[in-house]
Amino acid sequence: MRPLNALVAAGAASVLALAGCSSDDSTNTEASSTVSETSSSATATSSEDTDDMDDMDDADDHGEHGDHDDDAMAGHNHPADGGPAPEGMVPADNAKFPVGSEVKVLADHMPGMKGAEGKVVGVFNTTTYSVSYTPTDGSEPVKDHRWVVHEELESPGEAPLADGSEITINAEHMAGMKGAKGTVDYSTQEPVYMVDIDEDGMTMKNHKWVTESELAPED
After folding, report:
1. For residue 188, is it left (φ>0), alpha (ψ between -120 and 50) or beta?
2. What is this structure's pTM?
């Protein structure tokens, strides 16, 4: 009987040993799975955090662009009072709208201008130019700025200048304009006006410039 008992005992020991190994393997597998899941979760969280930071950066960038656009739209940086006309300009005696005339502005040089009411405070005979130029303050290049008169150019020579002529602007209708270099787009010989403009309850005095064809009698 002893050999049989010994055999049974040995078999039981083997079963217990195998059970122990199986339990260890299961525990190790579960632990490995837990570590893997934790790592994946951490990676996903890190990725989400990175995406959130990118979204915040994008929002900041758009905000900066929005601020820039708001500044650009603020009356194109025109001063509230444009000041007197340049020295040496010749008053126009044959103007359709004499000084003091109430007019309606047909030009759309800047937001809110078209259809605004105005009053003529000066009218002159000269050559008036549309110009394109690069502002001195680092702003984006300006295309087809209307208008600059011949007397507002640095050493321009005899009028009229040909289209494409290179120029230096001495006027300061807008920020970054004075001293800017540019070119003539085209010109007109019609009378040019300096106008006080009423726009949305605000008055822009001595606005330069509006040509005769850009004005109509006030209704």
Report:
1. beta
2. 0.65
